[in-house]
């Protein structure tokens, strides 16, 4: 039985930073520049066993929901036994089934040692050398580790014996800030193409590097992610964009050609503006998500409707550049629930200088009537962009002018999410909403933001847009 805790980087939104491990702080430059470190030889790593205290890990770091599951199971258990133990539990996945146990509004992932990889390792046509001095229990754990994705996710923590087992050299790779597959990357990604997206997510969130073989395999096998179901793709995209590493994620998705497949509309924008795969420059789309990253984090994510709305807003603005005051009034109108009189009044008093580097902003001398008309037009354009993002034909045509681009008509935004995102900005074109109370103050309620509270999502969206167009400071807001 394996339970995802903060120690499993790919399954949880955060992990504990130990004192003896190198602390790695995410930056997009690290994610872009140094990802092609040459892979070391394929010699089997010497397996190690650590006292958890050596790594700065304690049982107190285990979240309460995970402790509840651990205490309920105590020892190894098949997935069906897990379901019998916990009433709010379901088995998900076919090739790699796991249990989702619901505890305190959180989901704890549980995998059985026997089912964490249905396909035997030998089916990959690979041979692995058994670690020396390995007893029966060690061999059992080692065999299970062979079915995992990355060396850093092959670590096993026994909270009862307070031991960390490292059969794959995961601790060394953490210290090197390196993402390396267990076994050849090409085999690993063919076995489970979702690992490609997990690799991007980890690299973006932690600032880790890829080895050359891993990077090449990600690029060569990028189109295989189309085999994943839409729900899984949405989950992976949400992990990338809602937890504080959206800008770095978009840069890596673009670098490896995955953006062309997952978000063709946004990829077309990168191409139109001459953005190279290794480009270190920024633009409005990246700046919007950079400002989102300043407000959210692994332990305080946003609802997916926020980043979907940001994508649609940017698409609308890139299709039709607007006066900065139009954008300001629009964001204020979103915040206050559609009171355009108030929004226009405040916007017309703005004296701050807008960011003149964005092509999507064109200053014009607009009277009040024209300003109001363009604000409503922008809201209509955002609605249209949302619709196009969920229309397979529109998505398929996004990269039509670029013959070398891969074909993709992928739509992973479900109807419920589309409708929720529509509500964020529709008040601007439909008029003031009866009974809506605008958010007061600047403090973000992260519980409400994660749950998709309309008031909270509108507040944060307006703040991101306004801070991007009129950058007042560069410090990270700790709210």
Automatic annotation (TrEMBL):
<dbReference type="InterPro" id="IPR002646">
    <property type="entry name" value="PolA_pol_head_dom"/>
</dbReference>
<keyword id="KW-0694">RNA-binding</keyword>
<dbReference type="Pfam" id="PF12627">
    <property type="entry name" value="PolyA_pol_RNAbd"/>
</dbReference>
<dbReference type="GO" id="GO:0016779">
    <property type="term" value="F:nucleotidyltransferase activity"/>
</dbReference>
<dbReference type="InterPro" id="IPR043519">
    <property type="entry name" value="NT_sf"/>
</dbReference>
<protein>
    <recommendedName>
        <fullName>Poly A polymerase head domain-containing protein</fullName>
    </recommendedName>
</protein>
<feature type="domain" description="Poly A polymerase head">
    <location>
        <begin position="77"/>
        <end position="179"/>
    </location>
</feature>
<keyword id="KW-0547">Nucleotide-binding</keyword>
<keyword id="KW-0808">Transferase</keyword>
<feature type="domain" description="tRNA nucleotidyltransferase/poly(A) polymerase RNA and SrmB- binding">
    <location>
        <begin position="207"/>
        <end position="268"/>
    </location>
</feature>
<dbReference type="GO" id="GO:0003723">
    <property type="term" value="F:RNA binding"/>
</dbReference>
<dbReference type="Pfam" id="PF01743">
    <property type="entry name" value="PolyA_pol"/>
</dbReference>
<dbReference type="GO" id="GO:0001680">
    <property type="term" value="P:tRNA 3'-terminal CCA addition"/>
</dbReference>
<dbReference type="InterPro" id="IPR052191">
    <property type="entry name" value="tRNA_ntf/polyA_polymerase_I"/>
</dbReference>
<dbReference type="InterPro" id="IPR032828">
    <property type="entry name" value="PolyA_RNA-bd"/>
</dbReference>
<dbReference type="GO" id="GO:0000166">
    <property type="term" value="F:nucleotide binding"/>
</dbReference>
<comment type="similarity">
    <text>Belongs to the tRNA nucleotidyltransferase/poly(A) polymerase family.</text>
</comment>
């Amino acid at each position: 039985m394996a339970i995802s805790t903060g120690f499993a980087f790919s399954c949880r939104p955060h992990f504990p930073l130990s004192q003896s491990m190198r602390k790695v702080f995410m930056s997009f430059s690290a994610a872009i520049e140094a990802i092609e470190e040459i892979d070391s030889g394929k010699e089997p790593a010497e397996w190690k066993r650590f006292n958890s205290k050596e790594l700065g890990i304690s049982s107190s770091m285990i979240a309460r929901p995970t402790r509840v599951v651990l205490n309920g199971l105590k020892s190894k258990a098949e997935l069906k036994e897990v379901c019998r133990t916990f009433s709010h539990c379901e088995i998900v996945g076919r090739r790699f089934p796991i249990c989702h146990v619901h505890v305190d509004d959180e989901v704890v992932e549980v995998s059985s040692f026997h089912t964490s990889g249905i396909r035997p390792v030998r089916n990959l046509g690979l041979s692995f050398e058994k670690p020396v001095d390995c007893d029966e229990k060690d061999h059992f754990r080692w065999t299970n580790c062979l079915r995992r994705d990355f060396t850093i996710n092959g670590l096993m923590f026994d909270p009862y014996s307070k031991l960390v087992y490292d059969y794959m050299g995961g601790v060394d790779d953490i210290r090197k800030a390196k993402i390396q597959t267990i076994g050849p990357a090409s085999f690993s990604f063919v076995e489970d193409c979702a690992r490609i997206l997990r690799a991007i997510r980890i690299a973006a969130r932690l600032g880790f590097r890829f080895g050359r073989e891993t990077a090449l395999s990600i690029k060569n096998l990028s189109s295989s992610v189309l085999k994943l179901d839409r729900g899984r793709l949405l989950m992976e995209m949400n992990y990338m964009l809602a937890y504080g590493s959206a800008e770095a994620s978009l840069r890596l998705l673009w670098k490896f050609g995955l953006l062309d497949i997952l978000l063709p509309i946004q990829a077309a924008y990168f191409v139109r503006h001459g953005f190279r795969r290794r480009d270190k420059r920024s633009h409005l789309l990246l700046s919007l998500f950079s400002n989102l990253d300043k407000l959210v984090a692994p332990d305080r994510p946003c609802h997916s409707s926020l980043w979907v709305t940001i994508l649609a807003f940017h698409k609308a603005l890139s299709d039709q550049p607007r006066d900065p005051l139009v954008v300001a009034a629009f964001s204020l109108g979103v915040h206050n629930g559609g009171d355009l009189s108030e929004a226009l009044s405040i916007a017309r008093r703005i004296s701050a200088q807008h960011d003149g580097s964005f092509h999507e902003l064109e200053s014009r001398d607009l009277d009040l009537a024209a300003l109001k008309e363009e604000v409503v037009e922008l809201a209509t354009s955002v609605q249209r962009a949302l619709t196009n993002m969920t229309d397979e034909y529109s998505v398929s045509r996004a990269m039509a002018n670029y013959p070398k681009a891969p074909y993709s008509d992928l739509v992973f935004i479900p109807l419920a999410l589309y409708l929720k995102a529509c509500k964020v900005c529709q008040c601007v074109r439909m008029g003031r909403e009866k009974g809506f109370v605008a958010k007061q103050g600047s403090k973000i309620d992260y519980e409400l933001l994660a749950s998709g509270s309309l008031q909270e999502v509108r507040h944060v969206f307006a703040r991101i847009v306004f801070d991007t167009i009129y950058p007042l400071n560069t410090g990270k807001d700790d709210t």
